[in-house]
Amino acid sequence: MQSPSSTEPAQDILDELIGVQIHFLTATPTFTLMTNGCDSWQMGEPAYRGKETVITRPIIEGTLNRIGQSWLELLDDTEAQVRRWGKACFARGPFPDDLDRLEPGSMPWIEAKEDAFHRAAQIEDPVQRTKVRDAAVLRFGVPEPTSQTLGFFGPR
Questions:
Q1: What do you get for the CA distance between the two ends of the chain, in Å?
Q2: Looking at per-residue confidence, does 79 or 156 come out higher?
Q3: Domain range list for the chain
């Protein structure tokens, strides 16, 4: 009689996830959704904060490592995610309405910050421009400097 392999229980858990909606809480290259399985020609779709997807068999197959394990096995174990990556990275269901989809410091956040200050600068009315800029400062913090002066001031 053969003993069951160590990947069989994990595969059962993964099979139960087909059709389940998940969302991502962080932007990281660790999570790439291979929507057509592991075809070598396909790059996959990066998972970013706020991304929602429904798990399919090709997505599961694209998350398997060489020994048949998947990060999706940690879907319902926030503590294990924190132990592995230092934070909770994904969870069941849609992305919570009370969370900001932009993760501070991520490329989408940086682009949104630059866009907000650029839009404010395009407004001709100084009162309206100040209001829009103040709203951008509240959301993103002060803008990055756009120039730098290199020089030495002091005794020669």
A1: 88
A2: 79
A3: 7-92, 107-140
